[in-house]
Design brief:
single chain, 5-stranded mixed β-sheet, alpha+beta, Nucleolar protein 6, Beta Polymerase, domain 2, Poly(a)-polymerase, middle domain, 6-stranded mixed β-sheet, transmembrane helix, transmembrane, Alpha-Beta Plaits
């Protein structure tokens, strides 16, 4: 029996001879039977793929990715040549004069600004430039793990001992000398013609570690970028001098006090100390890691995969992030622990590293490179953990390499690692794209994003309330925003607690600046951006229950929450401290509970006003609001979720009544709502029908509008199908079946009217029932009709079964749609954000005026996919986040080469994931341009044929791509003037004609994006029996349908069905080509004599426009060319 590697431990095991001997040889025998002899190398490769890789396709993809991101030999040769030249230039630099560190006149004469925030400016000591004793290559190039694009080669310049004095570890003297050294190097290099660009930046955004970036022109087409780092010669300082508990920046000096006065307390400066230790231990750690990783191509490639994975998640840049160095060191530590060995391939190294990261605790069990060296007096784990958020001990045992990694970033890494493992365990063909090809932006990762505007007042308030604020400010060289971010993050974690699974600040990536410009100051950042990943099971709770009021913990609870805390008695009789965040039951208000918590807690503890917290969630809610004049109606409607529930409650009551009907001879098998409202996906759930007014007549219990009066409120029919039990007495003719259904409709309508006193309207194809102000359109269906439509008799009398357009449409309506409705309803029950997400997406589609070219159910299934298969994310916790991901999916998915497999109810098998893509590729030419595969539709054609067509899909992709760019920029770079409705206003300039509609006939105008609140809505009196309203009467909608029916051969018509007041017209170019003189071509064409005296027909635009005006009488206000509009 073939041995499978199913456990995580097995994944770490290298391929042994026993395993290879047990690998099945069936495939090899089959290949030989086809007269193809595999080489020994090919056979071994096949065995390795089957035993050790995710899949054959995954191996091929990984191989191609490694080729794509790895550098070639030409690059390496160019780098070596440039390094040799740089070494010669740098080591031969002349020594400089001695200057006071605080003296900058000589530097100004060079036109260079020191790349360091000198706070305070005064400092003791002198500086003399001496050429570096060594210039060596470091970083990814030495390990051959450098990754394209953005290739930067790291060089380390070793500063001579003579540059330093014994007490240079104090008061930023070392780091300032370091910065001055870079300035001198930059001044000399600026004179070299081959060096095109010189800039400063901070290494990993650490303000204590400025580096010099230089670009060298190798050839006309090739340029190389180098980053010059600095390290001192060995043994200039004792490593123990920089233990995390020690102080090396004196508060009196930093704060400008009397330096001679005795300081009673010297706060530790762990960040400052670690920044210097980084330089002191750089060479030791580089050499050790290189020794551990040498001679292993699999480990090298695994590190490259890890870098690509981290980079796609924006986790390798910015203050507080991981770094390539730490990532490489962590792989080395796993090799030391024998969790990884050098025989592993790249996939095994990647998976094993991700596995251990997902379970890691870098405080309780920190990784280390110091195992196996002779005992010394090292700092303890507690000393490391008390000073930093993460611990990773270096080779010397004195330096915490993870001193910059914040707790929120590490939590994010663990979360991403767990998601990656889940993705790999699914064995889907898309796992490679999810892991390595999909960028995970901050806006799409986090459900809630908000910005905090910092100010000097905020920092003063925090300084007065937090004892350690000043000491941390000293430790971070006066970059107060770093300290502010730390404390904000801490209090957010405490306040939000179980409501969120992740809280993270967007890592600030330090910019590059010219050598003549001042150093970057973190305090120049105007906004601090934070993101929340919600725990949807707790995030929307409006009540925080605290400890019992008689316990000592209650005092701490009250002090933390302030005036919001109050004593409450609960149903079980207990009395607790509690905080109520909202008295509203609206889902839209509950979604913003986290916003209220954030604003309150920051205001109470840190003096950050509510206006200074710009919360992005809820910015798109107004698109789902009703723009009516009645504030009561607007507030009651909210964003529509509660209106959907109201419809469902009424339907449940009607359902019970229908199932109990006794007037029809067949039992009702099921009653299913198929209208989008039953799936919680109707953009604007139906309002209750209004009362009869003086502007209406009532004829035979039906409301009829009076001539010359405003049209009544739009009332949509809510489709419900009643499936009858099977019976052999149904006729074999479609027309006869329709007559039988009409009879059933009459029976049902009469019983509902006479026994249950509902207002009904009976039609041959349906029965309209008014219940609680909603009109439910009941249709009788049966499977016999479907069978008859599929039956076809041949000329010789044989009966065959085949699908027709009618049978397919009926099957979708009576079988597929009810089932999909129940599944999507289930998704909504598990994911509160599903409903509003779908409705926002539909609103965007409609706003682009392409509503009729993409079926509603297609949009719903696309959003369902985002919730069912959210990787590389978790399921969206907010409508805005779901909307962003919808735009990303629509614009980036490869619709031409892949089917979108929507695993509804998790009914796909492993075989399906393998066979469906193959079948799709095999029959691609006959399939629609967009294939949505579900377990019930494995071809993916049920909902996307005939629409969307290829041109409209391409247009949607472009619209989605550009809309996503705009809205993500608005979310991440929020300004007070940002208009979040911008992407819902399509440009009209590309239309050939614009038909403007009269306001009075636009019955849905209150649903428009920019509608004025001037529509009156009369809420009905449910205690009185109401007549049947005018159902489904929308003159604008009917007008658009007429235009397409009459003029569809000449033009395309675009309209926003939700209150749009314009119709866009695009002429079809083929309609204006000359046609042969034939009666079938006479419509809207006139004869034209050609040069060869033949007669052709030419289209007359003016005739078409005149007829549009005639058909649109009382509806059309004007027809204009966009430039004239």
């Amino acid at each position: 029996m073939k041995r499978k590697l199913t456990t995580e431990e097995n994944v770490q095991t290298p391929l042994s001879n026993d395993i290879t001997d047990q690998v099945s040889s069936k495939n090899i025998k089959k290949a030989k039977n086809k007269n193809h002899d595999f080489s020994t190398e090919e056979i071994q490769r096949l065995k390795e793929t089957e035993a050790l890789f995710h899949s054959s396709l995954f191996r091929l993809q990984v191989t191609e990715l490694l080729k794509e991101v790895s550098v070639n030999q030409n690059f390496n040769s160019s780098v070596k040549e440039c390094i040799t030249k740089l070494q010669d230039i740098l080591t031969s630099l002349p020594a400089g004069k001695t200057h006071k560190i605080a003296d900058k006149e000589w530097l100004q004469s060079l036109g260079i600004q020191i790349p360091f925030l000198e706070k305070p400016e005064r400092v003791k000591g002198s500086f003399q430039f001496l050429p570096p004793t060594e210039v060596r290559l470091t970083g990814s190039m030495t390990l051959d793990t450098i990754v394209k694009p953005n290739l930067i080669v790291d060089l380390v310049l070793q500063m001579p001992k003579a540059c330093f004095e014994p007490k240079d570890y104090l008061n930023q003297r070392y780091v300032r000398k370091r910065a001055l050294y870079l300035c001198v190097v930059a001044s000399h290099l600026s004179k070299n013609k081959q060096i095109e660009d010189l800039k400063f930046t901070y290494m990993m955004s650490n303000p204590y570690k400025p580096v010099l970036l230089l670009t060298i022109k190798v050839t006309e087409k090739r340029k190389l970028q180098f980053r010059l780092l600095l390290e001192p010669e060995e043994n200039i300082f004792k490593l123990s001098r920089f233990e995390l508990s020690k102080n090396n920046v004196r508060p009196n000096w930093f704060l400008g006090k009397d330096s001679e006065s005795k300081e009673d307390f010297l706060p530790a400066t762990p960040f400052y100390n670690s920044s210097i230790l980084n330089d002191l231990t750089l060479k030791v750690n580089d050499q050790f890691i290189a020794d551990v990783l040498k001679d292993s191509e699999g480990v090298r490639d695994g590190i490259i995969l890890l870098k690509v994975w981290f980079r796609q998640r924006e986790l390798l840049t910015g203050f507080g992030s991981f770094s390539s160095f730490i990532l490489t060191a962590y792989v080395a530590s796993l090799i030391m622990l024998k969790k990884i060995n050098k025989m592993m391939n790249s996939y095994q190294v990647f998976r094993t590293t991700i596995l251990h990261l997902s379970k890691a605790d870098w405080i309780a069990e920190p990784p280390t490179l110091s195992e196996g060296i002779s005992p010394r007096v090292f700092p303890t784990t507690d000393e490391y953990g008390g000073a930093t958020s993460c611990v990773f001990v270096d080779r010397t045992g004195f330096y915490n390499m993870a001193y910059m990694i914040s707790s929120s970033i590490f939590a994010r890494v663990k979360d991403e690692a767990a998601l990656a493992l889940t993705t790999l365990d699914q064995h889907h063909s898309s796992s490679f794209d999810v892991l390595f090809m999909t960028p995970v932006s901050f806006a799409r990762k986090f459900d809630h994003v908000f910005h905090i505007t910092t100010s000097s007042a905020v920092k003063e308030c925090m300084s007065s309330k937090i004892n350690e604020f000043t000491s941390r400010d000293i430790d971070f060289a006066g970059h107060s925003n770093i300290v502010v971010s730390h404390y904000i993050l801490q209090i957010l974690l405490k306040a939000l607690e179980k409501r969120v699974s992740l809280v993270q600040q967007e890592s600030c990536t330090c910019p590059e600046w010219k050598i003549s410009e001042k150093a970057f100051n973190f305090d120049s950042i105007r906004l601090l951006t934070f993101g929340l990943v919600l725990n949807v099971s707790n995030a929307f709770n409006v009540l925080d229950k605290g400890p019992p009021a008689d316990l000592t913990e209650a005092k701490e609870f009250r002090e933390f929450w302030g005036e919001k805390s109050e004593i409450r008695r609960f149903k079980d009789g207990t009395i607790h401290e509690a905080v109520l965040w909202s008295e509203s039951s609206k889902q839209s208000d509950r979604r913003l509970v986290c916003k209220k918590i954030v604003q309150h807690i920051l205001s109470k503890h840190y003096g950050i006003s509510k206006d200074s917290v710009q919360y992005m969630e809820g910015k798109l809610d107004s698109l789902l609001h009703l723009n009516v004049s009645s504030k009561e109606a607007r507030d009651e409607y909210g964003t529509g979720e509660e209106q959907s529930l109201s419809v469902l409650r009424s339907f449940e009551e009607l359902n019970r009544v229908i199932r109990a009907l006794s007037s029809i001879p067949l039992a009702i098998h099921s009653v299913s709502g198929i209208h989008p409202v039953f799936r919680h996906t109707e953009v604007f759930p139906a309002l209750t029908a209004a009362n009869v007014t003086k502007e209406m007549d009532v004829e035979k219990n039906h409301i009829v509008p009076k001539e010359g009066k405003p049209l009544p409120q739009f009332v949509p029919p809510l489709d419900v199908i009643c499936m009858l039990e099977s019976s052999g007495k149904w006729p074999e003719d479609v027309d006869a079946i329709q007559h039988m259904k009409t009879l059933f409709h009459i029976k049902i309508g009469n019983e509902l009217k006479e026994k249950h006193f509902y207002s009904v309207s009976i039609h041959s194809s349906h029965v309209d029932v008014l219940k609680d102000g909603y009109v439910f359109r009941i249709k009788i269906v049966n499977t016999k009709e479907l069978a008859v439509l599929r039956t076809h008799k041949t000329d010789d009398g044989m009966v065959k079964f085949r699908e027709t357009d009618e049978s397919l449409a009926l099957e979708r309506e009576i079988i597929a749609l009810p089932y999909i409705t129940s599944l999507l309803h289930g998704i909504q029950q598990e994911n509160p954000a599903f409903s509003s997400t779908v409705r926002l997406c539909k609103r965007w589609i409609a706003a682009q005026m392409v509503w009729d070219f993409l079926p509603e159910i297609v949009i719903e299934l696309l959003v369902a996919y985002i919730f069912i298969s959210p990787y590389p994310y978790t399921a969206p916790g907010s409508p805005c986040n779901g909307f962003f991901r919808f735009l990303h999916l629509l614009s980036t998915f490869n619709w031409k080469t892949d089917p979108l497999m929507i695993n509804l109810n998790k009914e796909f098998t492993e075989e399906d994931f393998s066979t469906i893509p193959k079948e799709f590729t095999k029959h691609r030419a006959t399939l629609p341009c967009m294939c949505l595969v579900t377990p019930q539709d494995k071809q993916g054609t049920k909902w996307t044929r005939p629409n969307p067509t290829e041109p409209f899909l391409q247009r949607l992709i472009v619209l989605a791509r550009e809309s996503l760019k705009i809205v993500e920029a608005q979310v991440m770079l929020q300004t007070a003037s940002a208009d979040f409705k911008l992407i819902f206003r399509p440009p009209l300039g590309h239309y050939d004609l614009i038909i403007r509609l009269l306001k009075k006939v636009n019955v849905n105008r209150y649903q428009a994006v920019d509608a004025k609140k001037d529509v009156c809505v009369n809420l009905p009196d449910k205690s009185q029996k109401q007549p049947i309203p005018l159902v489904g009467f929308n003159p604008v909608r009917l007008f658009v349908q007429d235009l397409r029916s009459v003029f569809g051969d000449f033009a395309m018509f675009f309209h926003d069905t939700f209150g749009g007041d314009v119709i866009g017209v695009v002429w079809k170019s083929q309609a204006f080509e000359k046609k042969d003189f034939a009666t079938s071509h006479f419509n809207y064409r006139k004869p034209s004599v050609n040069k060869d005296e033949t007669v052709s027909l030419m289209t007359e635009k003016e005739c078409i426009l005149e007829d549009i005006r005639v058909i649109g009488g009382g509806i059309v206000e004007s027809i204009t060319v966009p430039s004239e509009a």
